[in-house]
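Recall the central idea of this unit: under ordinary conditions, the amino acid sequence of a chain determines the structure it adopts. In this exercise we apply that idea directly, starting from the sequence alone.
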Amino acid sequence: WLKKCAGGGICSIDTSQKIHHKFFKSISILISVFAFAVAGAACGGSDKKDKPSDTDAGIIEDAGVDQCEAGHFGANCDPCTCEHGTCNDGKDGDGKCSACDEGYWGENCASKTVTCIAGTPSLGVTGDGTCISCHANTGWSGENCDVCEGNYWGPSCNQVPTCSEHGTPSLGLDGTGLCTECEEGWDLEKNCAELADGYMLDKAGNVYKTTKIGDQTWMAKNMAWQDESVTCYANTQEAPNGDPDFIKNYGCLYTWGDANKVCPDGWHLPDKDEFEALVAYVDAHKTSSAAVWSLLYTDNENNLSLGHDEFGFSALIAGAYINGSYTEFSASETTKKASFWSVTELENNNFAYFFGLGPNFGGKMGSSAKENGFSVRCLKTEMQCQHGTPDTTTGHCQSNTCEAGYIGKDCNIESKCAHGTLDSATGHCQAGSCESGFDGEDCDIAVTNINGQIWMVKNMDVTIGADGSSLTCYANSSSNFVEHYGCLYNWYDAMKACPAGWHLPTYDEFDALLTYVDAHKTSSSVFLALIPGTTDWVDFQGQGGDDFGFSALPAGYANDYLFGKTAAFWTATLGESPGTPEEDWQAAHLNLSSNEVEWDSDSRNSELSARCLKDAAVTK
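Accordingly, the structure predicted from this sequence is:
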């Protein structure tokens, strides 16, 4: 039961064999203790007296060789100093980190906090927590990618500011991306992306100030745009001190042909009427002695410092380029002036109108050869065409596009002339142009001339009086009563029913009519001479001669009383006839009835017909 080691010593005891004798059993125990002791020495023991105790921390024995536990290093197996990484341990290790856990850096992998804000941090054993590089396509920069530079802004260093190219954006970490200020003419509230009120752009995008004068919006500075299609004449030879910035200050001088090319979309070269409308408005609202001083710029030596510039037009005397020479500019010239081309040509196509402003010229229109060079002020195009096809360049209507019944360059004048020669400026008829049988400013009133008296041939049918008041129009039961017979009025409304230039006849004026008709009639009676031969008269159908075109119709009285049998006309005369009492409640009227013509009077609240007579008699 004793077993030998490979080297010959006793390494163990086989206690599996049963020993029944108590003696041998005791001996067996003693021998076993001895055998184990011997086996420990024979099977790899050492007799070195300075060997560390097998209870020392970090040291293990492996096949008789001392080793360090994981996380320990060196001859004494000291603990590693690597906190968050892989330690270089073992007897030959230095106890430092060979690699750091994710997110840690430094020699001992002890640091996790990085100063790199918006980039790739330097990590690992050799890292220091700063940025290796900043994130691509961002505005971050600096050692820690914590500086928002260039065209970037805000806590996230956004790439694109919202401020337009016409403004200065708020940038950096504390920025907003919005504009802090704009170039001249741009609206800060719109982030400098839209023009502010009172400014416009030329075709190259240059900003010009504008001014509102009445209903017109004008450039407040001379046009200076040019490209290869136009020639810009600059009066530098005559400018004060040979001003090299003449174009910047005074704009270009253009021929008439080029002047028609330079206004941008939405603006146009003004016509003669538009310049004259400018002068009319200025004349009506100026405080200066003349329009020229109200429109000239102030505090300019070449303007003689006399300009008041009341309306912001700010005209500068830029002179002119005439017959190949600069002129009308220097202070010594009596002809000096600012001249602005209009689009309006003269009948001689080689000439066009211009608007001039000068101390001796005043403020008015003139004309010049088209090859001469003048300044240009564009006028904002307002869509004024109302009843036609708009011309987007001028805002007026295209020629010959007005709807029926409208005239004018804006097709906004109602053509009211019915039977005469149209006045294109007013839409009414030209004075004295009415055809025979018509009168009024629109030649739309059918009339008859009876011995120099101009009578309307129809009864009045209006509901608005000449003074603008409302009139009550009474009608009998016929479906087209008012259209055919006119209205029935009380006397008070009848007195207001006639238009300007006409009136309700007096007793005397009616009496003069009857006297003339009686003397010159061809019909058998005055009654038949004054009524038409129509079916309107129930008892006299087809019998009327209407000798003088008076055409009296039997409108009767209100409530169908004597409708179809009597024509009753109010006069302006109170009472029945001269010599009778002029009672307050009565007025005279003329009755045509039963082949008779007679005078009567009635309450002024009664309803009768009204026939108007022209104020001024016409010589026969």
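The chain is about 15% helix and 20% strand.
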